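QUALITY CONTROL LOG
STEP: pairwise intake check
CHECKER ROLE: data steward
CRITERIA: each record must contain a sequence immediately followed by its structure tokens, with no blank fields

ENTRY 1 OF 2
RESULT FIELD BELOW
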Amino acid sequence: MVRYSVRALTVLVVLVTAVALAPAGPAHAQSRAASVGDQVVQKTNVQRQRHGQRTLRTQACLTTMAQRQARRMAKRGTLFHQDLHRVARRCNVRMAGENVAYGYRNGQATVRAWMKSPSHRSNILERRFRLIGVGVVRKNGQWWVAQVFGRK
């Protein structure tokens, strides 16, 4: 998890790892990725509602930045965070945060794992966030997921 605010910079990095999964057929890769991404958004909002926070709205720019990050991580075969200063500038947000993960079987399992990690949970439940973008890539049978949060 990394969080960036124009007023104060706070950087926390926690990387989530998990077990490898069996590969999926290539014909369904795009639709399955969209489904996993939708699950991440939906389950994130379920957690926010359970904890008295507003639901997040998807934003195209944050989704684009999350998708690029998921592709970069899958290509390199390692988890890492992107420069959230750049995300904030490009997406015109004053505050941004990010969770990354790989290897979980679906979006629900990914969010469940993030909720067990104090720093990832903190991003999901951050009351100031209003926007979300999720990127998902499947490579070598593993889902790579980037979740980017923002506030205008």
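ENTRY 2 OF 2
RESULT FIELD BELOW
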Amino acid sequence: MRTRSGFEAEALSERFTGRDALLGPAAEGVPEAWLRQVAEHSARQGDIFLELINKCPFGIYLVDDGFTIVAMNERGQEGAFCNVRPVIGRPFDEAIRILWPEAVAQRIVGHLRHTLETGEAFRSQAFVEARADVDMVEGYEWELHRARLPDGRQGVICYYFDATELRETQRALAEAARHQRLLIDELNHRVKNMLSVVQALARQTIGRNPDPVTAQRAFEGRLGALARAHDTLTKVHWEKAELADVAEGAIDSCGVADRVRIGGPVIWLDSRIAVTMAMALHELCTNALKYGALAGEAGWVEFEWQVEPGPPPRLHLAWRERGGPPVVAPTRQGFGTRMLERALAGDLQAQVRLDFAPEGLTCTIVAEAPALFEGPVAAAAG
């Protein structure tokens, strides 16, 4: 008894081959005309089938039980087997060794032998290997099925799809997802660090200043310096910042750009060090405005740097105040002094010296931190 699927398959076969329409005239006694129709119809069907096979978007080839390639569509001949000529009638193991290294070729041949001997289908979805005939890594998805040849022998049909671009896209998507996770983790880390800096600024500025108005102004100024440093780093995607840009941003935030002369070779700072440097320069500017050379109209500041060749290379920075009122050494250590002597010494692996000479404060910094000497600084150091 035939099932519903059996009837459906029979109906599909009739629509494709026109078998019943051709058998009808034979019953009416016109065999010669019917045979011509059968021959023409078979030829047309063969052409259509060949067109379907050749135009499909994957490769197909047939290997007989003697392991000879007996058929292959155009996609296969123009694609994976393009460097094998001739390909039809060629021993399969010989052709496959042209395309792939020996170990890979042996694996492929073994899968075909197993399917031929057992009838078990095989499917590979994770085939990505370096080819032997070209300097490329390619990925394929392929299936093997045992099939009966017209002469009754067994053979193996291979269907394969070039998934190289798909694999590259998948790797790119995976890498993009990994990079996005890193960016999110880094953003979380930086936000936490920034909040810690703001908390420290608030504690050191407001908590130690009895005058709320003065404390507020000082706190706002330090936040402004922090914001300018972040603006500078944003321009370079938080990878590094040029020392000159960091210095200009910190000095501009204090409104004294026309009274501070800066100069030196191109130096690139690690993002963390750039923030520390910006805060330190802001403190020097603030101190100069309140007590030093910038407190009067005649004073000015020079901020210069140079590189002393290594190994290891060392960065010399000098902040020199001139033309201001006589300097008196402070009786206690304030936030600015702690910032210079502790933060710079820690982050820059630097030695910091403050000289409160009567003619003006001089702050000298000698740093050896490796992060200071990234990018094109080697050219400036030579």
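INTAKE CHECK: passed for both entries
DESCRIPTIVE NOTE, ENTRY 2: The longest strand covers residues 137-148.
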